[in-house]
Design a protein that fits this description.
Organism: Merdimonas faecis
Distance between the termini: 31 Å
Shape: globular
Radius of gyration: 15 Å
Number of domains: 1
Low-confidence stretches: none
Number of helices: 8
CATH superfamily: Hypothetical protein af1432
Protein name: HD domain-containing protein
Pfam family, one: HD
Largest sheet: none
CATH class: Mainly Alpha
Strand content: under 5%
Structural class: mainly alpha
CATH topology: Hypothetical protein af1432
CATH architecture: Orthogonal Bundle
Number of strands: 0
Order of helices and strands: HHHHHHHH
């Protein structure tokens, strides 16, 4: 039963009209991008890595909380391209609208919603005392990048301390 609600929740996020339009816009803007892209492959990689790390560490985070944060963490990246708004801020704003628009039986609690939004806002620059999901999303987002095999790695302006130069277990 819990698995069904989790799947239904995540599908409701994925199928939300604002999610779909934002993802299309992002994909269009990144179509010719030689660097890392922020589409569904990246979002799911981030979610899966975060969930695995959570299981390995026995963290008290639900799968749907982890996946929701990961699926939404870059959804506002298109605004950064179009008008310079930092994507962690636009993604949190869009995520809040999507989460509040879920059918009532699939909505996260106000506390869970705030946990997701905090994680999204913190996924680019880790605060000194991050929340659990925030730190997990930050780490998993970075771990999802295979910089060691990227043909554009030398031209990438991503901070070298964040680049993955080897396979991370």
């Amino acid at each position: 039963m819990e698995h069904d609600i989790c799947r239904e929740r995540l599908e409701a996020i994925r199928n939300h009209p604002l999610y779909q339009s934002s993802l299309r816009r992002l994909n269009d803007l990144e179509r010719g991008r030689i660097f890392c892209r922020h589409g569904m492959e990246h979002l799911l990689d981030t979610a899966r890595i975060a969930y695995i790390k959570s299981l390995e560490r026995a963290l008290p985070l639900s799968r749907d909380l982890i996946y929701a944060a990961a699926l939404l963490h870059d959804i506002g990246k298109w605004e950064q391209y179009e008008n310079g708004t930092p994507h962690e801020l636009s993604s949190a704003r869009i995520a809040e609208e999507i989460l509040s628009g879920l059918p009532p039986h699939l909505r996260f609690s106000p506390e869970e919603t705030e946990t997701i939004l905090t994680a999204i806002r913190g996924h680019r620059k880790l605060r000194e005392t991050p929340e659990l999901l925030e730190a997990l999303l930050y780490e998993s987002d970075k771990a999802s990048r295979a910089c060691f095999s990227c043909p554009a790695s030398e031209a990438c302006n991503w901070d070298t301390t964040k680049k993955n130069k080897e396979i991370d277990l």
